[in-house]
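PROTEIN–LIGAND DATA SHEET

This sheet pairs a single protein chain with one bound small molecule, magnesium ion, given as SMILES. Inputs appear in the order they were entered. The predicted three-dimensional arrangement of chain and ligand is reported afterwards as a token string under its own label.
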Amino acid sequence: MMVAGVCSVKPARGVAVRVDSGGDGTYIPCMSLAYLLLDLDKTVYPASSTLGREIDDRMTGFVARKLGVSEERAHEMRELNFPRFGSTIRWLMEEHGLEDPESFLQPTHPEDVAPFLAPDPRVRAAIESIPLPRSILTNAIVEHAERVLAFYGIRDLFERVFDLRFNVYRGKPDPAAYRRVLEAIGRSPEEVLFVDDYPVYLEPFRAMGGKVLLVSPEGASDLPRIGSILELPAWLERSSLVRA
Ligand SMILES: [Mg+2]
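PREDICTION REPORTED AS:
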């Protein structure tokens, strides 16, 4: 594969080219792609893995203890406030006086990720086959990202890991987080494909002119989608964003 410098179909100004992205009729602007930004949790590893559930349960437990409510109620409150704040940590900081974000971040990310993940050499093969420079953009902490990347043996495939500290504890979906990362990698949004498992994290980047792709077993939005990271190389080829 090579990175496409121009589209195979030259569009009129402002016209998008229709591509086959799994039959969902997605339109993607025909421009060259120069960089890949990948989310970490439930994007690099599958949503079905127990790591995502473990982090989620730990966050719910933290909220239950902090607010003195049942875990069931804590879970409901997290779900309820997610659309408004975009993350549990923002909600706790803005509405419940959480002053030390590290006191939330450290214990909610397990120090040993191996019990929650299954080795899969296809993850490295898939990411390595994509002929673009890449970085991770996560709302977790860099230590957690490093553990997951080390588990899959893929740390060397990424230039940078942009974590929540890099984004001064105000990460996705705040547009400022995307702008900070774009500045750090020296790219315009149009040159970047951002891949994440949360539609609400993709939409602000798309609104900035960036290319986005949802990783999810279920298609519940109008966003272009793949079922797992293993499908990314084939999706890129089909989309004409990179050419064989
Ligand atoms: Mg994620």
